[in-house]
């Protein structure tokens, strides 16, 4: 943006889509005025209004069972057709329940299901139950889950919600009577978002819910009115025939969709002054204040207290867990909860510069030195039902901070944090020879919470001749731990994971179950530090052509993150295997309950390996933000630019290729120990090794190449722009054509992607899109442009990613779209 703009310009744009009904509209206004005293005021405003795109608008998004997109034969593609691609949830309105504290299960089925018709004519001999007057389901003594009864999130979710966004920037520049230049910047940003998600369930599902063992166990007493109504065809009651005292929900989903309304605002104010000292020194100083707020209301959430009270009623207004979407009596269980965030920044800086501090035979040496002080603060306020003000307690006494009063939501305390950072910096431009220049820079930052760090840069440029310039640089940089990772309180999250120890102990696969991860901030974190290198050249082989090539590398150490629940549990398994039957502690960060035994699929008790100390399921994994292993990236950037002014118009073209040579995540310490133990012959052989190590290039959203091209032609009032983007191919490691289950490397129990007996990984091919823009400028000064984006209507390559079936971080899946733009600049 120009801070000395003069005039008035207005732009209107509307976007539409081939595959969706949504429209996007944008208004931009630029205004500027010069005053007789040399002052200038410049104003920039834009408003963006985006409509909703729902998941059900696209056939792929609406149905999470992607197996339908594969052939059923044994072709190369057909061999991938397994339940890995069934990205649907067993937790649906067709619920499943454990009977009492045993392992027997009852499941709801659609009325036309074969199980609903079993022995209806025979009456009392069949274990099939219905509710008189409710003909939309039956409850059967069975535990198979029909594919058509699984939940596809795309049926409810918005791919994107509605968005209204406005941005205002005001610049004012003037010269004071004493000759000092003053500049002021005022900024205001606001946005409103509404997005619908999918209905919630309880934290913890599947076998972990037996005997109420889930994170949020949901107990349905036999006295519930609707449990009392269940009966066989002969009128005999469910409670009497099955001797039911209560049910535990194994799979369940509420009816009302969750979602959120979010409002964000940012205010920014800057006041600066600049001038000159004697001796050729220029100075500049500024004060900046910025405040950002985010207020989010999350609707459609279920209060655990309210739903427990509702399901305990013995009257017809009781919550009906067998409603299957009709007459659930659930109005009183839904609440709206909030999350309010605020961040503040106050900064002052002062710097002086001189283009000629002193001179050498090669030229003048320039210098800049300065200082900066800034204060950052943040506040993260959670709803009372989340932060522990309003609590809910499980049947076995667990409460905040391990569970919250909101179903499907983990507890989170309020978080506060602030820091003051003092900085000193200097930079020099040094001519080494007539055609060789160097740059030297250094910056020191002192944080009052994590200590200090010093980084620097050295760059060298050599103009070999009029056609060729050589350049190289080396620098260090850092990324300080943010205020969340340092100050966050005790945060508990639930995930469904496989338990390596149980699989080793029982010698068989055990279904994943709900496990809690407890993490918190770490005051001892250090900054991530990176060393950057680059070397390259600039060539101008002919007039108006520039070719650049730069080879670069980035080596990062002390990366910040979590070691992870799965890795902690794998370490627990290794320690116990190494210690044998006398090792009953394992990894102290993995908290297990006492062994209660496990049953096989037929309900028979499984036998524990006598070489291991008996252990039960994991209740909590204690995980704290830490500095992890090192990472190295290498690549090559190539760009070619050319322009030509001819009798038939002005042409320009730019081609860019970003090529990654390496993306290597080092494994050391405990991570390396686990990887080695998981190799063939190791104690953890046959178990999944820690993932995300070794060379990750070409895997999981990290293609080796990205290309872009821009071509333009202008002639008189006409203009044409063509642009294209190509994203390289990569493999998805969670999917292969002979995997025993998803989420494991191609060779189970190893960190390798190839080898004897390994399956082929799922391949995501390159994605290339082209855009075309046509423009015309009228004599009146109006300009009109029409654009077609993604001319070929290319869709994102299919990926095993929940709901959307695409690697959304790098692939756009909206297909072809259009825009029309009208622009006018007024003198």
TrEMBL record:
Coiled coil feature spans: none
Keyword Membrane found: yes
Keyword Membrane in record: yes
Residues annotated as domain TonB-dependent receptor-like beta-barrel: 245-791
GO cellular component: cell outer membrane
InterPro entries the record matches: Beta-barrel_TonB, Beta-barrel_TonB_sf
Gene3D superfamilies in the cross-refs: TonB-dependent receptor, beta-barrel domain
Assigned keywords, A-Z: Cell outer membrane, Membrane
Name of this chain's protein: TonB-dependent receptor-like beta-barrel domain-containing protein
Species the sequence originates in: marine metagenome
Upper classification of the organism: unclassified sequences, metagenomes, ecological metagenomes
